[in-house]
């Protein structure tokens, strides 16, 4: 069994080395999540020059930005922060079903512009084989811009990404999946600074009192908490504390009994 595991690791290393072997310089669209952190690590290890670009918008919470900065620092890669007001774009702000496509197009277009100014001809993102283009309309923008997805091209699934992250001792290996704050707002409901701030503050509060892998759905005057089944009892136990904080933003708070 040990020999088989060792062979698998060697084969994976060879696949990575072969893929990055002729890519001397690469720019990385970096979010600080599980996928892009592994991608940045691999690019930093196997390419001569790499730079991470983080686009900071109203859709990313402050804690996620801080983690991204820390992860880039640990890896030893240069990271540039690009600020963008995504709510200035009507196609994004109106929050229709194609919002993710327009958002990804604006963000990737800005990164591509900055990367080219820095002399990069290749821009990579962290999409992997488990990402379904039918469920992620933003992936269409990647092909339109000619952005490469090394993890996907090397055949790595989300499970592979987590296993490799663990092998490289990356602190994102067990990080729960996290989507941008805009996904908490129902499709068709206009996205505002206010409803984004309410979502961010309430989710950060739940993190501070010990919860992870959850969502706070913004449904107008009501907040709906989605969590793991094992956390629901503890949510009830902390009911008064949660209600007191959430009442700053919502008239009603409910727990979704369906497991996240």
Order of helices and strands: HEHEHEHHEHHHHEEHHE
What is Rg?
A: 20 Å
**Helix and strand composition category:** alpha/beta
Mean pLDDT: 93
Q: Biggest sheet: strands, sense, closure?
A: 4 strands, parallel
Q: How far apart lie the N and C ends?
A: 35 Å
Strand content: 5-15%
Helical proportion? 40-55%
Number of helices: 11
Globally, the shape reads globular
Seen as an oligomer or otherwise, the chain set is: single chain
How are strands sequenced across the largest beta sheet?
A: 3-2-1-4
Q: Low-confidence parts, pLDDT < 50 over ≥5 residues?
A: 1-7
What is the number of beta strands?
A: 7
What does this structure look like?
It is a single chain. The chain has helices at 2-20, 34-46, 62-75, 90-93, 99-117, 139-145, 150-153, 158-167, 193-208, 232-237, 239-246, and strands spanning 25-29, 49-56, 78-83, 123-124, 215-219, 222-226, 252-255. With 260 residues, it is α/β, with parallel strands linked by helices. The strands form 2 sheets. Strands 3-2-1-4 form a 4-stranded parallel beta sheet, with helices on both faces. Strands 5-6-7 form a 3-stranded mixed beta sheet, with helices on one face. Helix 2 (34-46) packs parallel to helix 3, helix 2 packs across helix 8 (158-167) and helix 5 runs parallel beside helix 6. The longest helix is centred in the first third of the chain and has 19 residues, at 2-20. The chain starts with a helix and ends in a 5-residue tail after the last strand. 33% of the residues are buried.
């Amino acid at each position: 069994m040990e020999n088989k595991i060792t062979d698998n690791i060697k084969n994976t290393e060879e696949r990575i080395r072969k893929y990055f072997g002729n890519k001397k310089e690469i720019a990385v669209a970096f979010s600080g999540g599980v996928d892009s952190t592994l991608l940045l690590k691999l690019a930093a290890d196997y390419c001569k020059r790499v730079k991470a670009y983080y686009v900071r918008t109203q859709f990313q919470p402050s804690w996620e930005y801080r983690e991204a900065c820390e992860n880039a620092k640990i890896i030893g890669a240069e990271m540039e922060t690009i600020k963008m007001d995504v709510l200035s774009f009507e196609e994004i702000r109106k929050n229709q079903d194609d919002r993710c496509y327009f958002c990804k197009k604006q963000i990737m277009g800005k990164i591509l512009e900055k990367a080219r100014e820095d002399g990069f001809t290749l821009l990579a993102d962290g999409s992997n084989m488990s990402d379904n283009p039918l469920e992620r309309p933003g992936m269409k923008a990647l092909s339109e811009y000619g952005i490469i997805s090394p993890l996907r091209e090397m055949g790595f699934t989300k499970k592979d990404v987590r296993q490799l992250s663990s092998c490289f001792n990356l602190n994102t290996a067990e990080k729960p999946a996290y989507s941008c704050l805009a996904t908490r707002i129902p499709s068709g409901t206009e996205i505002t600074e206010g409803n984004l701030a309410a979502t961010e503050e309430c989710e950060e509060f739940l993190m501070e009192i010990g919860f992870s892998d959850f969502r706070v759905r913004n449904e107008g005057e009501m907040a709906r908490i989605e969590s793991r089944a094992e956390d629901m009892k503890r949510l009830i136990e902390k009911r008064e504390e949660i209600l007191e904080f959430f009442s700053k933003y919502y008239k009603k708070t409910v727990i979704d009994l369906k497991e996240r």
